[in-house]
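Re: that chain you flagged

S.,

Sorry for the slow reply, it's been a week of failed gels. I finally had a moment to sit down with the sequence you sent. For the record, here it is as I used it:
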Amino acid sequence: MKKETRLYDSETALTLYNDALNGSHWWGRAYLASIWQGINERAITSFLLQHIPHDFHGKILDVPSGTLFFTHKKYARLPHAHIDAVDTSAATLKYAQTKITHNLPNVLLHQASITQLPFVNETYDITISMNGFHVIDDKEKAYNEIKRTLKPGGTFLGTFYIKGNSKKTDFIAQHILTRMNIFHPPFETADSLIRRLKKDYHVRDVHIEGSFIYFVCQKPEKLQPSTHSGIMFPTFN
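Prediction finished late last night. Pasting the structure tokens below so you have them in one place:
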């Protein structure tokens, strides 16, 4: 089985990556401006995470979780939630461990592939996938695993890179980062991703900013047999 990414296999690379996300150095800000055209990832993540109430008591899957750079502060405000953070990279999880050791006892880290999640069907109330699908080799399996492990009525929150909205970003993604074995095609367009999501979920909210798409989806409730006929009717809460 292939690893989804080789970008984060060293602590040095992880430190550089997190410094870039933080924008604490000029080169980090230049990187974000060049590939994402200045999109505010932090603001987008905050917008999505506000859909999780602070009194949430259920189970959350974060995959691929990365270093928890954007999510750890939110998780600290969810003391009653159980959160499984999954990534293939041992170095990434080691870095993430530094964020959860003292103040996030509700977060468990797992080294596993999104294409073969070690969890039973319909485990999670919420699944989060923040800007990680572009590094996954077998995206079909990844989509299927997210759907399999999400409960009926559960929420799927995500941010994805989409091609076709920025020639500059597409060039960097396809001709530089793909050749460096960091990104892995095929990549979704806005239309193809929305069609895919609508096939499996109720799309509650979707926004597009440049080469970023972010969304809130809900997995349909299971059909229940009606006592009045042989027809199956959906159950509404």
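What I noticed first: The chain has one domain: 11-234.

Talk soon,
D.
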